[in-house]
Specification:
Length: 385
C-alpha cells in the first residue's frame, strides 16, 4: 500500500492537535518526518544515516575520527545531491507516493526534492508561515516556486486565503479547510460557574498579559471571578509575576501545559473562554485557533478579538463576543456580562456548540483533506495538473 509522507517541524508538540487528528483520520499508511530540511528525522534518527544508495557505507563512515568526519563527510552529506539521495531512499523504503508538508516553510524547503522525485506535494499553512514578515522575506521566492509546483495549498481561514493570494498562490489551487474540534468536546456539560478559562501558548500572538489586564479590571466589579490559564511558553513567568505584582494571583491559576484528559474537566467548570489574540509587530497572526473551536464545541461562549480566522469562528452576539485588538476594557465588559448572567452563558454556549457542529467539523476537515490527497494521486496517475 502506498504511503503519505507528512512533514512537520517538531515532534510531540502538545498544541498541534490538528496534526494528530490527521494522522488518526487520514486513510492508508502515514510516515512522519520531523525537524527541518535537510536534518529530517524518522523515529528519532536522522534519515541521512540510514537511507540512500549506500546506507552501510554511511554507517561505517561514522567510525572515522571526528575531525576527519566533519572535514570529509559532513559537507557532502548536507549537499542537495546527498539530501535528495537519502530522501529518495526513505520514500522507496516506505513506498511514499505523496508529500503533505505542514507549514509553508516545510513545503518550500521540500519542493525542489518533490519536483525532482516526481512526487505530488500538498502544503498545509497554519498561521505564522503565511504572515510573519521575517519568514516571508526569507521564503518569498521559494513560496512562488512552491505555489507553482504544489498540487494544492491548504488555508485555514478566509483571512489567510487572501494573504496566500497576495504571496502569489493561484486562487484555483487554494483549498479552504478550517480545523474542527475533537468529538469528545461535545460531551462536556459546563456548569457555568464564575470561572473563565484560557487555553493556549503564553506567546506574543496570544497576548496573555492583555487577558490578565482585562481580568484585573473585571475583579473590581466581579470579585468572585476566577481565571484559569492553561499553557506554557516564554511569557508564562512574566504573566505570573504580573498577577502577583497586582495582588490578583489568588484569583488566577497557572497549571502549565496539560494534555487533553487533564484539560477537559476545566471546560465543564467554566462560564466562558477567553483569548486576546493580537497582530504582532512582525505581522504574526493566528490561523484558526483550535482552542476556540474546542471551547465552543464544549458549550462555552467565547470572548476574543477581531483577529484573522477568529472572525470566522466566533459569531459576535450569538456564540460569544469580539472586541478590537488590545481593547482590554471592552473585553472586561463582555466578561463581566457573562460572569453575571449564567442563562446568557448557557444560551450562547448552546449556539456555539451548534455553530461548531454545522460549520467546523473535524470529520469534514479530514474528509476534505482526504479528497485533496486522492485528487493529487489521481492527477499524477493520469498526468493532469
Amino acid at each position: 500500500m502506498k504511503s503519505i509522507c507528512i512533514i512537520n517541524y517538531e515532534e510531540n508538540k502538545l498544541s498541534e492537535t490538528f496534526i494528530r487528528a490527521q494522522l488518526e483520520g487520514l486513510q492508508g499508511n502515514k510516515v512522519v518526518l520531523y525537524n527541518y530540511h535537510p536534518e529530517y528525522t524518522y523515529n528519532g534518527r536522522l534519515i541521512r544515516y540510514f537511507y540512500g544508495k549506500h546506507p552501510l557505507l554511511k554507517k561505517l563512515k561514522t567510525l572515522l575520527p571526528q575531525f576527519l568526519y566533519w572535514r570529509v563527510v559532513t559537507r557532502h552529506e548536507r549537499s542537495d545531491t546527498a539530501t535528495r539521495d537519502c530522501l529518495a531512499g526513505f520514500f522507496r523504503a516506505h513506498n511514499v507516493d505523496l508529500i503533505l508538508a505542514h507549514f509553508g516553510w516545510n513545503g518550500a524547503n521540500i519542493c525542489a526534492d518533490a519536483r525532482a522525485l516526481n512526487l505530488p506535494l500538498i502544503v498545509h499553512f497554519h498561521g505564522l508561515d503565511a504572515h510573519n514578515e521575517p519568514t516571508l522575506a526569507r521564503y518569498r521566492e521559494k513560496y512562488r516556486q512552491m505555489f507553482d509546483y504544489a498540487f494544492r495549498t491548504i488555508s485555514v481561514s478566509n483571512f489567510m486565503t487572501q494573504a496566500l493570494i497576495g504571496l502569489g498562490a493561484s486562487p484555483d489551487k487554494i483549498v479552504y479547510n478550517p480545523y474542527g474540534p475533537r468529538e469528545y468536546f461535545y460531551e462536556i456539560q459546563p456548569d457555568y460557574r464564575s470561572t473563565i478559562l484560557a487555553v493556549g501558548r503564553f506567546t506574543d500572538i496570544k497576548a496573555p498579559y492583555l487577558t490578565i489586564m482585562a481580568f484585573k479590571l473585571l475583579l473590581e466589579e466581579c470579585p468572585e471571578a476566577k481565571l484559569v490559564m492553561v499553557g506554557d511558553g516564554e511569557l508564562r513567568e512574566a504573566c505570573m509575576s504580573l498577577a502577583k505584582t497586582w495582588g490578583i494571583d489568588s484569583s488566577i491559576s497557572f497549571p502549565g501545559a496539560l494534555r487533553h484528559p487533564q484539560t477537559l474537566p476545566l471546560y465543564g467548570q467554566a462560564c466562558c473562554f477567553v483569548q486576546h489574540s493580537v497582530t504582532t509587530s512582525l505581522g504574526d497572526v493566528e490561523g484558526t485557533p483550535v482552542a476556540i473551536l474546542e471551547a465552543q464545541a464544549a458549550g462555552l461562549p467565547v470572548v476574543s478579538t477581531r483577529h484573522a480566522g477568529i472572525v470566522d469562528e466566533v459569531v459576535h452576539g450569538k456564540t460569544g463576543f469580539l472586541v478590537e485588538e488590545r481593547d482590554v476594557v471592552g473585553m472586561k465588559n463582555y466578561l463581566c456580562k457573562l460572569v453575571k448572567d449564567q442563562p446568557l452563558c448557557r444560551t450562547l454556549g448552546q449556539n456555539a456548540r451548534e455553530h461548531m457542529r454545522t460549520n467546523f467539523n473535524i470529520r469534514r476537515h479530514i474528509a476534505r483533506l482526504q479528497e485533496v490527497i486522492d485528487a493529487a494521486r489521481a492527477a499524477k496517475r493520469y498526468g493532469t495538473p
